[in-house]
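Extended Data, record Transposon Ty3-G Gag-Pol poly
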Amino acid sequence: MQKVLGHIPPHRLALYMDDICIISKTFEEHLVNLQGVFDALRQHGLRVKAKKCAFAMKEVKFLGHKVCNKGVQPEEHKVKAIRAWVAPTCLKEVQMFLGAVGWYRKFIKDFSTIARPLTWLLEKDVTFTWGKEQDDAFNTLRHELVKAPVLAHPDPTRPFVVTTDASKVGLGGELSQEDAQGQLHPVAYFSRALTKRERSYPTYDREVMAMRDTLKHFRYYLLGAQVVMRTDHKPLLKILEQKDPFGRRATLMRDIAEFEPRIEFIRGQDNHMADALSRIGWNVKWEERDEDTSKVATIGGSQDEIGPCKDVRLDINDFQLQQERDSTLKPHISTHRNEHGLFTRDHKKQVLLPASLVPTILSLAHDETGHQGADKMLARIEPRYWWPKMKAEVENYAKTCQRCAATLAQGHRKAPIHQRLKEEKPFALIEVDLKGSLPRTKEGFDNIVVITDPCTKYVEMHPIRGQTSQVVCKTLMGWISRYGLPNKVHSDNGPCFISETFEQFCITQGIEHTFSPPYRPQGNAGVERINRTMGEALTKLVDKHPNRWSQHLPDVQLAYNTAVHTSTGVSPYELVFKEHPRSKFEIITEKISPATVREKTERLRETVSEVFQKAQESDAKLAGKRRERYNNRWTGPYVVVKPTSVTKTSYVVRRNNGTKEEIVHYNYLKPYQIRPVKKPKSRNPPKKNGVGHPALGTSEDSESDSREEEMQPERRYPERIRRPPEKYT
């Protein structure tokens, strides 16, 4: 959304994900701003729902705030929920409270200083202890949020007034502006706690740091604007006139000078924020609640069980009245009551819950506790409440939660990785895919079209330029000219396959076009696996010349089609051409009569259906199993010099032709199989008196190169013995 509407100035538009708030001073300006937003959305093909929109509003609720022409303040129901928050009993609840009230910290002067006893509990190696300081801080934050002022809208055409102060525990700042009548109104507040090291700084440095941090926090408003800074620390008046500052102070002064502020002095008694920050006391007295707590029932029990987001306290008399009027509870109401006079279930402590309150309890037990499952919901509800068909309703509520359905992992067994498409006739169905993002060759090729027949596993690989539909259609037409028209073409949802050009090509040729599910490569698993094999083979062949991959593509295609496929037991070439492929490895050629050729051809034709059935059974065994891909990259070869310890878990290795040594763990080593090189037998036979193998050296060499000898492989083939031709003997 930022890319779509980012060109609109921020004083006219506020964005948060898909929430759009348009700001205007007059109705005419509002219409102009609306038109600009609609034009941008239309240009990018986006729409908004009219029933979710509100236009020409004088007051809106946006991200937990109430925004009007007077300013910004917290939403009332959010403040009410925080005001009713019960004192935390564990570290997790402290974090939850600080997170909730911290969202409105800009409304609370000296937030960090007030919250210091609470944030101290979050430090490392601090035992959770809820004492008087923590309780006073907790109550102060709730009270300050209740009386939070309305923050004025900033006006970039007017000067900003920044008031700062520092104490031994924190820094604070206030951003404000004067209205047309000269009355100063707060725009926002800033505060943060000092670190252990910063608390040891002298007063002057802490005051300068408060100025620097406040200016940086409100940088968005202040950069380029007229700034007046007010402080009750008189030495700061000449801070920007110091010559040759050094160290920490030089850094602080450099950051402050960027805003070019005019510094003014105010008396401490006029700096109310300084009084609140530096002279704050924790012995705060609070008035008792107006409600008679003995006549108030809190639904949900202790704060430990449910979240703090809802205040659902009910009058005891109202609760009793709802119990008596509920027709579903009448058969279960008896003479049993608890200490509050509420009807309970038999001799148990479970309060009979009226049907009107069931949705509230379900929401508290599920929505406000992290969307837990039915079992945990019942564990929370059963000790306190009961109503008819409670278990079924709890299970149904958890099962039908839209949020859970959108976020939880699927609980059912996953579908098989690839289901073979039912086409037993060769070339009746073909799968097509693109392998892209390849290095551009000198011919201009940068993509590969891969076409395969799932029945015979036969594949063709064609290098192409670009990924246009026209090029893909032309390549498919070449396949059709060689193997005939298929009944179906299966592909993924790539742009070249969902285009109108490709669809028109399929319609013209009378081919049915099917797709794999979006973002599901397993739906086109056959050709995807070929892409992987092809990529690995090309990587090995191109070596240091990756832009020559197109020259090796025919070799990769031939190797794949003439190799025995694991699912069929024969090569794709045999299934297509009904004969064994001729190979470079055939040294002896056998003369075969025409009758033998016909016999072998008929035999291969008869086994095609059997091979296809075997492939289906092989796929069925693989279906549903998890496959892990390993992309381990190995370097080497290395020579193992010696183990680093007696346990031989790590070894010292060096490059085969290098001198630099390094230590490698055993798990990151694997044997390197050396391919023997055949050499003519020397005219001077090796010495027979040594104990070493002729190919590895004599016993004289073995002492100096014992480790290298151990790594040399044994000769796999006998040495070729050269004899003179018989005709010369």
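Summary. Confidence is low (pLDDT under 50) at residues 273-312, 409-420, 623-632, 686-715.
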